[in-house]
Amino acid sequence: MSSKILIIGACGQIGTELTTKLRELHGVDNVIASDINTRKLELVNSGPFVILDAKNFNAIKDCCINHNIDTIYLMAALLSATGEKYPMEAWDLNMNSLFHVLNLAKSGQIKKVFWPSSIAVFGPTTPRENTPQHTICEPTTVYGITKQVGERWCQYYHDKYGVDVRSIRYPGIISHKAMPGGGTTDYAVEIYHEAIKEGKYESFLSEDTNLPMMFMDDAINATTQIMAAPAEDLTIRSSYNLSAISFTPEEIADSIKAEMPEFKMTYKPDFRQAIADSWPSSIDDSVARKDWNWSHDFDLKKMTSEMLTQLKKKYQS
Ligand code: AKB
């Protein structure tokens, strides 16, 4: 029998594509998409959709009962840049939504949980290169603090109550279907849109800021793979390091110039520079590769080619 899945935060950058993939895998009617509003009409009309506030425990519980949900993907969150503007809102949403879902799993209402963590759990005291799975985590952003604390709660609920919660530390995710909202790595998505629309882009990070990144297809594969892995293979119940590529704004600009020689890049770092400077530049994800056979497919060249092809279709059709 297929799982009955609820995606909370389905209209976001990752949620949008995760919904499509999970519907392919489990059947449209077995995947209930939900979000706080109906901002993405295409997604709302593509299958079962409910309006759901991730901070409302009773609403999530009722939805699970009404739709016989056994698995939740909790994708709603305020990201790093927005979290610095609205610290208490970030804490409230990111922590309470996680507790609601973990408590539903603890009570037996649902059987499995996916909750994304982030490279934001790391901070300036973390080794920057090839950051190990187990290392110093002293995040300096509210978002990073919520993810770090959330990881500890995931581990706790697994160890004390047997909750089957699975998590990965996403790097910056690059995609062409839905825009990211409020992250520090968002420049690496905006740049492709502006390249096609305007032929130029002003980066809010400096040219040599090297950050871990990943194309959306790889992120979605990682997410479905960890959820399909046998429970006994998973040695990490806080959150797995996950890695694909690292590049700087200058390197991504060069990869665009290789296809669009007239593309112009300028740099005007803002408050997000300090956030980026506190994060690693590359990640050691050998534990994920060993435990559940994770591997990535897209390098920078392949990703740039795919992004430009898809966005040309979008803007020039
Ligand atoms: C952000 O930039 O805040 C996110 C992340 C790395 O978790 N994309």
TrEMBL record:
GO terms for molecular function: L-threonine 3-dehydrogenase activity. Residues 5-234 form the NAD-dependent epimerase/dehydratase domain. Coiled coil: none annotated. This is UDP-glucose 4-epimerase related protein. It holds the Pfam family Epimerase. GO terms for biological process: L-threonine catabolic process. Belongs to the NAD(P)-dependent epimerase/dehydratase family.
